Amino acid sequence: MKIAVSATGKDLSCQIDPRFGRCQYFIFVDPESMEFEASENEGLMAMGGAGVQAAQLIVQRGATVLITGNLGPNAASALSASGVKTYLVADGTVREVIERYKAGSLREVSGSTVPPHFGISPSSSFSPRGRGRG
């Protein structure tokens, strides 16, 4: 089994990143041995589709469980279709949330928890409004 966690850094002591598609890193953890591997989120600065790109990475890397803070509708659909179970957490280090998962204290979700484009900051150069107008 492999667990993916959206994270702000590259090791088990870093905080989870509450954003899924626009998190800084994903940490893939074997919950039995606690061996891990960090991967930069290549979709972080994508103009669109960051959640789907992130979901594809999770599936390609063989994770069957995802722990994150929020999940948009397209990512939720992609993960669900691939059989990845998703659990939400509000805070904690990667190590702490893995331990909470192993203890059975995380809440599994079956759909999105935020609207589309949630992780895009208002100061971002990308804005979904006004697209296609000229």
Task: Tell me about this structure.
This protein has 134 residues and is of the alpha/beta class. The chain has a 6-stranded mixed β-sheet with strand order 3-2-1-4-5-6, sandwiched between helices. It has helices at residues 50-60, 73-81, 94-102, and strands at 3-7, 25-29, 36-40, 65-68, 85-88, 107-109. It has a single domain (3-109), classed as Dinitrogenase iron-molybdenum cofactor biosynthesis domain (Nucleotidyltransferase, domain 5). It starts with a strand and ends in a 25-residue tail after the last strand.
SSE layout and pairing:
Layout: E1 3-7, E2 25-29, E3 36-40, H1 50-60, E4 65-68, H2 73-81, E5 85-88, H3 94-102, E6 107-109
Parallel strand pairs: 1-4, 4-5
Antiparallel strand pairs: 1-2, 2-3, 5-6
Name the features:
single chain; 134 residues; alpha/beta; Nucleotidyltransferase, domain 5; six-stranded mixed sheet; 3 helices; 6 strands
CATH class: Alpha Beta
Strand order of the largest sheet: 3-2-1-4-5-6
**Low-pLDDT ranges:** 121-134
CATH superfamily placement: Dinitrogenase iron-molybdenum cofactor biosynthesis domain
Could you give the distance between the termini? 49 Å
Shape: globular
Summarize the structure.
The chain is 22% helix and 19% strand.
